[in-house]
Design brief:
Blueprint (H helix, E strand, L loop, with lengths): L1 H11 L5 H10 L3 H14 L5 H13 L5 H22 L4
Helix pairs in contact: 1-3, 2-3, 3-5, 4-5
């Protein structure tokens, strides 16, 4: 249910959702949940999300796995975070 709500917030593109989503990004520990939050923040595209997204990218890079099995999901998480950062740094149309 929570993931569906996060996806809906991203689809709506409502900037008012950025603060609660970034709070979730800082407090929730489930990686798949983080991926959904990053996707929603990227879909919204508000630069206000950048500090939380950049903090996640730094944390991911600092904890790069050394084994190949763990590296695959880590790469996907980092790619999702980097994509959200890119969407939030694009100039508004």
């Amino acid at each position: 249910m929570r993931l569906a709500i996060i996806e809906a917030l991203g689809a709506l593109g409502e900037a008012a959702a950025v603060a609660p989503l970034t709070r979730e990004l800082r407090t929730e520990e489930t990686p798949s949940y983080h991926d959904a939050v990053c996707a929603a923040l990227g879909a919204i595209g508000d630069p206000a999300a950048l500090p939380a997204l950049r903090a996640r990218a730094v944390a991911l890079r600092a904890n790069e796995p050394t084994d190949d099995i763990a590296r695959f999901p880590w790469q996907e998480q980092l790619a999702a975070t980097d994509a959200a950062i890119a969407r939030c740094t694009r100039p508004s149309p």
